[in-house]
Specification:
The chain has 124 residues and is of the alpha+beta class. It contains two helices and eight strands. Strand 6 and strand 7 form a beta hairpin. It holds the Pfam family PAC4. InterPro entries: PAC4 (IPR032157).
């Protein structure tokens, strides 16, 4: 949905939620589509433990990425934001509020996000 205010066109923020049981753990996903990008929260409990942002740059093939808040030693949010920005060509905010157990678990979570992106691109 778009609307016009003061001569500018603005897209309405839309919200999309989905869940998945991954390795016997219920994982929740919350997507807010913004104008020119999206915010993605991933977690098993309602906690915003970190926030990363990533966006494409005309100077580099890899998107720029930074951690806005959270533990800098946990790179999951930064890495995921960067990969999603590269895939979607949009500005991406990511909060990855899951414990870092193993790479296989993280890969399964990311694959679920990519599946949702393919099934429902209108939400991203």
């Amino acid at each position: 949905m778009t609307e016009t205010q003061n001569g500018g066109v603005f897209e309405a923020i839309t919200v999309h939620n989905f869940s998945e049981k991954i390795l016997e753990q219920s994982i929740h996903f919350h997507v807010m589509r913004l104008s020119g990008g999206f915010f993605l929260w991933v977690g098993s409990s309602p906690v915003l433990s970190n926030l990363a942002v990533s966006m494409s740059s005309k100077y580099d093939s890899m998107p720029l990425s930074t951690l806005v808040m959270g533990d800098p030693s946990n790179t999951a949010a930064n890495s995921l934001a960067q990969r999603l920005a590269k895939k979607t060509k949009k500005q991406v905010y990511v909060s990855y509020s899951l414990p870092m157990t193993d790479n296989n678990f993280s890969l399964l979570v990311e694959n679920r996000i990519k599946k949702e992106l393919e099934l429902h691109p209108e939400h991203f």
